[in-house]
Amino acid sequence: MAGKGLYMIILFFIVPLKQIIAQPHTTIWDDIKDDAIHSFNVGIGLVKSPFTASSSDWQRIGIATAGTGMLFLIDQEIKDFAQSNQNKNNNWIFGIDEYFNKEYVAAVTSGLYLSGLITRQTELRRTGLYAMEAVVYSAAITAILKRAIGRSRPYTIDDHTTFRLFSGGRSSYRSMPSGHATGAFSFCTVMAKSIDNNYWKTFWYGTAVLVGSARIYHNRHWLSDTALGGFIGYSTASYVVHFDENKTEREIAIKGYSIQPYVKASELGLMIHF
Questions:
Q1: CA-CA distance, 153 to 183, in Å (whole number)?
Q2: Which of 180, 177, 165 is nearest to 227 (CA)?
Q3: Of the candidates 5, 236, 31, the residue with the CA atom closest to the CA atom of residue 116
Q4: What's the average model confidence in pLDDT over 253-267?
Q5: What's the N-to-C CA distance of the chain in angstroms?
Q6: Domain 2-15+63-239 has CATH 1.20.144.10
Q7: What is the pLDDT of residues 47-87, one digit of tens each?
Q8: CA 226 – CA 220 distance, rounded (Å)
């Protein structure tokens, strides 16, 4: 419980003090509407991303795919090493994944957002919003992949090559990617990028790596599961954090037609050009 208390102190005491800014001139309802529109636009952007990805984006995806494949070769060895080093001290260190379940992350991200909304601290509200967006959208991507890949968990079958493609309905065949690693990296990446301080960044990225390691230690995931989950979480969070500054009006082109989503204060829809 001491570890949980430490994280609560950091999230709800240090974070609100990171930047105190002038009170905004908008109402709480205005902020909620703006944030809803922002979340919708981020979601549309993520859906469009396969059509608008740059060559460097595809290069990063290729590197991540190749890296996951390379780690796949040592999955069994890492699992055996983790299971042969079970002891009381390691149980305490790797108990961190208890605090990065869906309920805890949802409570913390919502708490950050509501704290900024109620206290009228725009920067804090935005951090909470980005964290919620990153966690929700990365979780959706991971959920789809889990069911499509259908990889067995290490506690189900002691064989890292067992897959049941498109039949990952059972939890025992939803090992890849790791949901905990996805959630930890998506949340921790937003937090790390919220303050330009190396110690702060090291703390949050180190936390995410520790969560992924804990899933291996507890025999819930293979190493490659956590690596892929971490990549999804980090990439999604980075996209969310930099969405506004990198936003472009790129269109989806399909067989001579172009589709451009648009969102206004009281309208949303699709524009089709042909």
A1: 18
A2: 177
A3: 31
A4: 49
A5: 60
A6: yes
A7: 988 888 788 888 888 999 999 999 999 999 999 999 999 99
A8: 10
